[in-house]
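Subject line: Sequence and fold of a protein, written as structure tokens
Body of memo: The sequence and its backbone structure tokens, given next.
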Amino acid sequence: MRFVPLSVSAMNRLSEHSQGPRRRGWCPSALRPMMAADGLLLRVRTRAGRLTSHDLRALARIASAHGDGAVGLTRRGKIEIRGVRDGEAALAALRKAGLVRNDSAPDLLVSPAGDLDSSAQTDVTATAEAVSAALHQDPRFQDLPAKTAIVLDGGGRAHLGDNYGDLRIDAVGGAASIALAGTAQTARPLGLCSLEAVPAVAAALLLRFLRLQATMVPKPRRLSAVLQSLGLNAFQSAAAPFLTRDSARAIHRGRAEVIGRVPGAWYGLAFPFGVVSADGLLRLADAVENCGSGDIRVLPSRTVLLANAGPETAALLQAAGGIGRNDDPRLRIEACSGLGACPVATTPTRGDALALAERVPGLLSGGAGGCALHVSGCAKGCAHSGSALVTLTGNGGRYDLSLMAAAGSAPVWRGLTLDEAAARLNAVERSVEAQRAQDEKLEATMKRLGAAGLRRLSGKETAGA
């Protein structure tokens, strides 16, 4: 069966007061692409996280002809085309390629590699299709807030345990754990149901959310706010008819392992900032056809997996501009689109982030995973909401530099050029190395010393900056 992989996302809805009442069958983003500083922006969603070589070649043509010549992989497993000059022409090209279906159901994040991964609980592809169909058929779900997300996780190496879902559905022992508002570890569990009952319980819980939301003033925009205000019992009765066991506990997943070659399963590839050039898409299509795998799998970690890829495929995949090693420092960098693409940003964030990665590699490679360097064009921190070992926040064309903090946090140094930021980080790196205890990780040393201690120990080079 060939998947029809893309549908225009409903994430680009305008606020209710600006768009007027929604109508049955209306797909807001299909008619109103989002405007960005570099042109229109289209976000399209994969179906069950899969793209064929035909789809990849079509995306390459459309990104080159109508966009900025590349696509982005988003944290919700979508494909983003930026710099679109003519939205109607781009949408027409997507439709002609068979890449658009009108679908205003909530975002569905799916772990797409259950059929490849012997450690997965199950392959959730069929369940994902059933959930998508059930929600698409009911026009009431068009009233869900635009950021509503369902996570459907089959477990295994390519799990989605760290992805937040308003509704989380985790496969466990041939059943499904149903939980609300969180990651696999933090979501509030409701109970267990059969995999066959997942579409019905998902619909029941989202309808309950809509009904509860309508009774509250002001109207909350996320399910988590309803849950915090009214408690888990407000949702329990909606799920109860489908649950085989009321009690369930949080799901604990290990660290996802997807980058590089997993013998007998896949070759996993990430991309700096999730951006794939048109040429990279064509090379991925070549790899799909050479391996006979049929498709690539797209994860919300902005990673793609190619099934049946042997060692001979590595060069072709990495020629696509991808990262195939877990120790590559670019995996620990986050940066927003920056100056020229965002009207608020005042700095070229991504180019600056890559430059810093070359100039202070020790701070990136010495981390314990996660984000080591975050370069944000403004205090909003769109690319990474949490803290990082090092955060540079754009401010009037320069950077405020924070340590072990999030974008917009109180900086250790203000108003730095890129060269000045690199010099201070080199001094911080030397200070940390001088203070590290035997076998102590760099991140642990930084936390022990604290931002104030690091500035003090950096010596004359940074004193008074």
About this structure: DSSP finds 14 helices and 22 strands in the chain. The longest helix spans residues 418-435. Residues 329-461 form a domain with the Sulfite Reductase Hemoprotein; domain 1 fold (CATH 3.30.413.10). The mean pLDDT is 84.
